[in-house]
Amino acid sequence: MKKIIFFFFISILGYSQNQMPNIELNAISGESVNLSTDFNEVDKLYVFSFWATWCAPCINELEAMHKKYDTWKESLNVEIIAVSIDDSRTQKRVKPFLNGKGWTYNVLLDSNQELKRALSIVNVPYTIVVKNSKIVYVSNGYSQGSEEELFNKLKEL
Amino acid sequence: MRILTYILAFSFSFLFVNGQDKKNKGRFFGGFETNAQRYLKFENNENSPEYFRSNNYLQLNYEINKWTFGMQVESYEKQALLNYYPGFDGTNVATYFAKYKAKKFEATAGYFYEQYGSGMILRAWEDRSLGINTALRGGKIFYKPTKDIKFKAFYGQQRTGFKVSEGQLYGFDIEANLSDWFSFQESDLEIGFSNVNRYQKIDEALIANPSFSPTTNAFSFRTSFTQGIFYSALEANYKSKDATMNRITNAISNQFINDGNAIQLNLGVAKDGLGIDLTLRRTENMLFTSERIPKAIGLNQSSLDYFDKVINFTPALTKQHHSNLANIYVYQAQAGVEFKSNEIMKSGETGGQIDVVYEFAKDTKLGGKYGTKVALNYASWYNLPGTYRAVPAKYETNFFGVGEKYFSDLNLEVKKQFSENTRASFLYVNQYYNKPWVEDASQDVNTHIFYSELIYNFTKSRSIRIDAEHMWADADFKNWIGGSLEYNFNEKFSLYTLDLVNYGNTKDSEEKKKHYLTVGGAYRKGATRIALGYGRQRGGLVCVGGVCRFVPESTGISLSFNTAF
Question: Which terminus in chain A has less CB density within 10 A, N or C?
Fold first, then answer.
């Protein structure tokens, strides 16, 4: 039985052709955005960074990218979108937090974790890069300095 | 065998849909997660315990045009990890759904998750690490006629283990943004209203001539207003009269009938470099479950201890610390009525939390070359003031004021970068935890915690993280010391070790003053992460997002693996 599931699981890996799911979320600015249709400017790199106000490595990652964001934007057509998975316990804290940090990212609120679930994300930090509506790069976690690796990847994509 | 049937049916439905549209083949996506433990020693000698346990989740979705079909298979073999809800047993299809989504309209049949407002009357959600899955089985719709109006409705029965609960739930929610209506330029005004209705037949063999209705109605009104750098939100909730569960006898009666309510106010300022956020909340008898009487588990527990069949969500409004010792005395929101003895009678909670976040800019005296970030947080929670009577149970509360103190936490965190390679953070925490009222114990506890963390980069991707902490506690298990070290070889591979020592323990024998030592490593590549650990897990509450699960102490080897495709 387990073997059958396993083979089924392996066989569909070949079929998977990843895009962002057809899901709508609210941005912190108030408007709703559709993940599969609102981020598809031709050849633009969209970096979706999943985070939460209580997640220290997530904040380190966004902080590290924040420092390099201007330099990145000079050489690439790139946009960073910070997807907060904070639920109603900590969601109210997102706004003051962003301002306290001075981050200029577009922030989306995945408050009941619909997007996180659809993408089978188990833990944050988690980063997804989308280009021409295709998921071209995924990073499950963050360690000090991985934003450099990400930048090198972005240059290749 | 049943699972195979489901999977085949699922694949055929995919082929069928696929056959209809030759151009767009659609796509598969999903993920797999496993958390396995080989326990070496159980602290409390269970009868014939299972030493190998694992929780496994396989999620499969297929999306084509406006349709998405999905399912989740869960497997708890040979048994679920320690202290998960006993309903999570064996291997089976746990959830499945079909969703249609157009630009303005969306409909889902099967299992779904949902949240209205902040979740104080409805939140169906999943948290695997806590063993919570309160998905609803039925149908829901979403309709957005204009960009400013959203309408939602659902009908469903709540998932419990691999079954669904008896209670039937209906609900709707409407949310409108009125900014354009009032022609606001700089401001934003939003309002929302929801209603959730639970029907559970009253078993007249247990309660003859019930003096309460089989239907319980919950209403919620919310509004939020933003003007420039200021924002505010208000939410008011009401739950109609219903039999209140007596948690001592795990029973209901015609004599203890109460309604419930909750009010929450949030105010804040957000500008460059500064954020202030204040939340006040008062909650009375707001435990809302899909079945009135929880299932008894063993002698001392019920399904409520596992958040089973809970319809709404009342998070603990306190700061979630990343220090290990600051997570020993964690507050859990006291939303419902709970009479534990002649002395301890709770009807809810009242209190608040404030956060101040400030950044001292670069090249200032306190900011230094890289800037300094400071975060101050204070939270304090109390029982509702009023009169309480244990037998027969009765209470009457006052709206203003506070009752017995449950918890407080005052903390200050400073984060500073010293050079290109070196960053550090310092945290001070002062907690008060009324353990007899919030959990079960004889003494309340006052703590002071100092925590510091240092991150040093050898090269761009090779780094080390060290933290050290100490907790002074005046009661319970007394003083602790702890530290951890994490070495990142590169982006993909890291090793860690963590030790917590309860050196102040005078409660138990010498043997109890022991190390909780863990070592482990993690490897990640793309969407896949694998981690292996060995060590002793401290018994106590494991908390995620203010919701906690009690885990007994254990020693063992753990393996976790997750991937997405």
Answer: N
**Could you read off the pLDDT of A28-62 as tens digits, one per residue?**
888 889 998 999 999 999 999 999 988 888 988 99
- Of B347, B321, B235, residue with least CA distance to B280: B235
> A19-156: which CATH architecture?
3-Layer(aba) Sandwich (3.40)
Q: Does B61 touch chain A (CB under 8 A)?
A: yes
Continuous H helices in B33-165: none
CA of B196, closest CA in chain A: separation in Å? Answer: 17
Backbone angles phi, psi at A62, to 5 degrees: -65, -35
Q: How much is the pLDDT for B19? A: 41
Helix, strand or coil, per DSSP, at residue B248: coil
Query: What is d(CA B57, CA B176) in angstroms, rounded to the nearest whole number?
Result: 37
- Tokens, residue B178: 């009125």
Amino acid (one-letter) located at B278: L
Q: How far is A77 from chain B (nearest CA, A)?
A: 22
DSSP string, A36-47: TTSS--TT-EEE
Q: Which residue has the higher pLDDT, A88 or B344?
A: B344
- What pLDDT, on a 0 to 100 scale, did the predictor assign at position B7? 54
Question: Interior CA angle at B362 toward B357 and B366, to 5°?
Answer: 70
The residue among B440, B150, B122 whose CA lies nearest residue B262 is B122
**Interface probe, candidates A13, A85, A88, A90, chain B, greatest B C-beta count within 10 A:** A88
Size of interface A-B (CB pairs under 8 A): 204
**CB-based contact B428:B447 (threshold 8 Å):** no
Is the pLDDT reported for residue B37 higher than 70? yes
User: What's the whole-model pTM score?
Assistant: 0.91
Computed over every residue of chain B, the mean pLDDT equals 90
Contact A5 B73 (CB under 8 A): yes
Quick one: DSSP state of residue A151? H
A33–chain B Cβ distance below 8 A for any pair = no
Chain A 37-66, CB below 8 Å of chain B: which residues? 54, 56, 60
Range scoring the smallest mean pLDDT among A26-30, B467-471, B558-562: A26-30
Asked if B119 has any chain A CB less than 8 Å from its own CB, the reply is: yes
Cβ-contact A23, A35 below 8 angstroms? yes
| A152 interfaces chain B, CB cutoff of 8 Å | no
Angle (nearest 5°) at CA B410 between B404 and B416: 170
What phi-psi label fits residue B197: left (phi over 0), alpha (psi between -120 and 50 degrees) or beta?
A: beta
Chain B residues inside the 8 Å CB shell of A21: 29, 61, 63, 68
Q: Under the phi-then-psi rule, with left for phi > 0, alpha for psi from -120 to 50, and beta for the rest, what region is B460? A: alpha
Q: Which residue has the tokens 């988690």?
A: A126
Hey, is the C-beta of B153 within 8 angstroms of any chain A C-beta? no
Cβ contact B264:B118 at 8 Å:
yes
Intra-chain end-to-end CA distance of chain B, in Å: 25
Task: Count each helix (H run) and each strand (E run) in chain A, helices first.
Answer: 5, 7
Q: Do B494 and A145 touch (CB under 8 A)?
A: no
Q: Identify the closest residue of chain B to A87 by CA–CA distance.
A: B545
Under the banding of pLDDT at 50, 70 and 90, the label for residue B15 is very low
